[in-house]
Structures are given as C-alpha cells and as structure tokens.
C-alpha cells in the first residue's frame, strides 16, 4: 500500500511530524527555564514563600517537558542520515559544526546544571543553586541560538562556496555562516515567542485555578494569584514587542525571500500601484488566483514598503516550479498573526482589570486566559510551518532543491518508519503530556513539597540496594561495655 506514495513526500511528512512534536517542548521550556530562574531569584531576594512554592510547582513540570524535548530531538538528528543523506552530505561541512556546538556547549551546559537545579538547593547552598538555575536558563537560549543559526543559514545562505567536484557547500567565513542575514531576526522572534508561550501556559493554569476556587467558594492561594499576575504582566509587555519584532522579521524576509512573502500575502498577481492586504481568501495554485478574496486596498504595500502606492511583485513573475504551496503558507501565516493579536488583546484586557483592581475577580478574563493557554504552542507551530513550507521547493534556499536532498529510499521503507513514529510518539509523549496536565491540575499550595520529597528515593538501575540505615550504624560501645 505504501508503495503508491512518493518517498520524498513521506520523508517530508515524517520530518514535519517529528519536528512538530519536538518544537512544542523547547518552545515551552525555553521560557519556563527563565521563569524558574526569576522565581528563584525573587525567593532569594525577598524570602517570600510564594515564589518558592511556584518554583517547586513548576520545576517538576519543567523536568518532564525537558526530558521529552531531549528524547524527541534525538530522533530528528538521525533522519539527516537516513531520509536526508544527500542533504547531509552536501550541507554537512557548513551545518555540521554549529549543530555539534549546540550539543557540546548548550546541551552540556543544561545537562550539567540540571541536576543541581532540580535537587541541589539544600546540598550546594543558595548561591550555587541560583547559578545552576541561571545556567540552565542560558543553556536553553544558547541551544536555540545554534539551531536557529543553522535553520537561518538554510533560509539565507552566506559564507560558503560550492566545491566544483563534490557539489558540497564548503565554509569560507564561519561568522557569516552563523550570523547570516535572517538569523538575528529569527532568533529574537522565536525566543520571544517561547517566552509568550510559557506566559500563556502559566497564565492559563493560574486562570484555571482561580475559576475553580471561585466555583467552590474558596480563597485562591497567594501562589496562584502571583502566578496569574506575573503571566499577565508578560502578556501585556511582550505581546506588543513580539508584533513589532514580527514586522521587522517580515521586512527581512521580503528582502531575502520575496517569494515566501508573496505566498504569505496571497499575491498571485503583481500590483504596480499598491498591493491589498488580503484578510481572507482561498488560494488556488492551479488557476493562480485567490478566490473569494476579501482585502483592504494598498495596506500590504503600506506595511511592507511603508508606502500606499509602492509596487509589489506577485507570483505571476515566478515560474510555477519555484513557487511554494501557497495555501499552506497563506493560512499558517494568518493563524500566527491572529493569535499574536489575540495575545495582545489578553494583555491589554489584563491591564484594564489590574487598573480596576479586578485582576483576580474578572471571570471572563480568566476564561479567555484559559482558552488561550495553548495559543503560544499553536502560534509557534504556525510560524514554523510558514517559514519552512515558504522556503520550498528548496532545502537550502535557491541552491539545493528538496527533491535533490532526499536519500535514495523506497516509499515503503520511509512509510513504515513514519507509521512507527506516529504510534510511538502518540503513546510515549501522549502519556507524558497527560501527566504534565495532571500536575498542572493540582494547584500550587503553601509549603509546596520539593521535587526530592515527592519520590521515595533514587532509582538504582545497577540493581544494588543499600542496607538499611540501622544495619549500617556502628554499635555504641558505651552500651555494650566494650
């Protein structure tokens, strides 16, 4: 049955499936690691028990999400050698070093200090524990730095030359490879998105407990109120910043990948006297038209060129085999933008409620925040889809086509591994996600137990079990008369 499918399409679906699962966890843990560092710093500064309770509450969730992110990320790297071996051979001299540095620097930094962060508060002292929390937070950011540098190079390749014999991309200027033209914009836009993702998950959990307390006639715990308040501050401050950063990123994309912007805007036709901003439409690649289009005249030119009458090229200037799948890019971009403005709305709403001293009593705000809890995860996936599908039909933009990057595998082989991934991922990560949701469903309480207190003891995988403490204690010689 799988033999009737295209092997390259199956390989693309497999990578998209695995990276979508993986991307959700770093998008959450990048922001959560920084949130934990802030909570720990506030606890050390004020000795206010609310911050310690919140740290102990969220650090358990962070540990689970971090572990699932690591496991899901390992699988992706293997696909470079199985499904995309030609891409690895040609681009490996350039992207191999940054990906190795991500492991040697960022991941080792996270892994090295994670144990101290989770279990070391009472063992190493406050100062070293705070350093560990900051190191883990920086490690998550540094990991994103290297991965996004690689991805950005694939979007805007620089600092290389192509070997005339092997066809490989050979590095010429390492700094140009790392700091390629789209990298700074993609880095700040993606990391800020991760912070917003965490803020809305934390805010959604806080809103859930505030609503449940109100329904039961109970008083919310101080930690619950603080959690919701901090999340709403992040939404109010960071959401408008993210919209501004997204605009800068869009202008950079217009400069270096104009075809992607044409697909995002749904501009099949060129507009010599100002392009409209299409709010809705049904892209039709066969007829090269946007059916049932609803737009605002000349606003796209105003946003992208800062001039109402600025001419904008359309896909009619691009050969058909150079165009990405417009419908996917068009709609994923609109999902991302719509969620961004919805986040801004929640942030402004929370400011209004705060000014009226109703932040903890605004039922409809809490309901909206609960509904918006997964919005950051959906938005980062939509943004990733816009970026990656908009780059098609290339893996290295303008230089190496996707069709020329795949390994020479038959469709049944790729399809079988895809089915296996789907079954295993939904089983393993579904169970992990369910457990995380259960932890979130329990409110943060006063004197929140430490992570070490929530388990009986370490798992001894070597099979040896220490003797009971009573059996190892030396006898008191004064009682035996010795």
UniProtKB/TrEMBL annotation:
Bilayer disposition of the protein: Multi-pass membrane protein
Transmembrane segments: 20-45, 57-80, 100-120, 127-148, 192-211, 223-245, 328-352, 364-386, 406-437
InterPro entries in the record: Cyt-d_ubiquinol_oxidase_su_1
One Pfam match: Cyt_bd_oxida_I
Ranges annotated as biased composition (Basic and acidic residues): 470-482
Region called Disordered, residue ranges: 445-482
GO molecular function terms listed in the Swiss-Prot or TrEMBL record: electron transfer activity; heme binding; metal ion binding; oxidoreductase activity, acting on diphenols and related substances as donors, oxygen as acceptor
Name by which UniProt lists this protein: Cytochrome ubiquinol oxidase subunit I
Organism in which the protein naturally occurs: Pontivivens nitratireducens
